[in-house]
Amino acid sequence: MNVKPMSKQFCSVLEESMRRLSLGSPKDLKEVHFFNDVPLPKVPPNGARIKVCYAGVCLTDQEVMKNSKIRITCGIKDTSLFPGFEVSGVIESIGSNAKAAEFNLKVGDRVVVWPSEEMAKCGYADLISVPHLEDLIKVPDSFSMSVAAMLPAGATWAYAAAMQSLQTVEAVLRTQSRCNLLIVGAGGLAERNGADCVVHWDESEFEQTLITRTKDAARSGLQIIFDFVTSPRTVTRSLHCLADGGVLYIGGLSGVDIQLSVKLLAQKRLSIVGVSRGSVELLQDLVNLISQGQLEPPTYKVYPVGQAGEVLKQLSMSELEGRAILEVCDTDRAVSMVQFSS
Known about the structure:
Blueprint: H1 8-17, E1 19-22, E2 33-36, E3 48-56, E4 76-77, E5 80-81, E6 87-94, E7 110-113, H2 117-122, E8 127-130, E9 136-138, H3 145-148, H4 151-164, H5 166-173, E10 181-184, H6 188-191, H7 207-218, E11 222-227, H8 232-241, E12 242-250, H9 262-268, E13 271-274, H10 280-291, E14 300-304, H11 308-316, E15 323-327, H12 331-341
Helix pairs in contact: 4-10, 7-8
């Protein structure tokens, strides 16, 4: 494999700064470890190596934190969780067989990465390998790289769910004056982004109290629920909250098995629809929509990567307002480093 060589000085800089972040064991995700002197990932022949700038903090299974039994799910490797689903950065090297011109990409470009399952195993690090150039979306110069890091996985899943539910919404509006929709797991984002009503699900309260409170807030009934958490408790609760003929949209991020009441589904004529985490095409759509001002990103805050432990602790206790983004490397510095090596 022929890859344009880096200068010895730049290699030294990368070797000294190459880190990988682990969030400890599934029993205690608040424990953060930095692995230094990790070997540089190889440049894939048909892909690229990316200097990571920002990484979204997004735990795909918070139930792991409360479970004494270790479960191996996507992203958990050797009893450690190496997150890597939301990353933006700068192209540092391109593989010898990659057709960069076809994708209008070059070394030094700012990009957001569409995550593969293999990437999730590698996790957050100073450098990551992306096997295929089609999994890179170019980020406009006017576009915030920290915002770009929020888009893969969570945002594309929400966008895919919204697109998939359009027919259901249209069907409801043909017979009713309004369609009520509940988003489970929106947290503080809902209060600052146009929700008509916010219902706090305090797990210390009785289950029936939470169901009744949610139904009362909807008044005319809940026709659609998006469950971003997809835990056994939230799925069961959502089904009880839905009006007759309602639809529950769920993702497969939690990696847990859920027992459902077939009787409840039949009696209320409920439907459960699975939604994938989106696609690289939807990721491109989101970049375009935000760039054009047609969508606004949710509230977020950027933290130095060294504060990852505290951020995860706050996340586990629902103390964060909006999305949390880790700054691994300043974008301008990353671009300068890449240009220096060229």
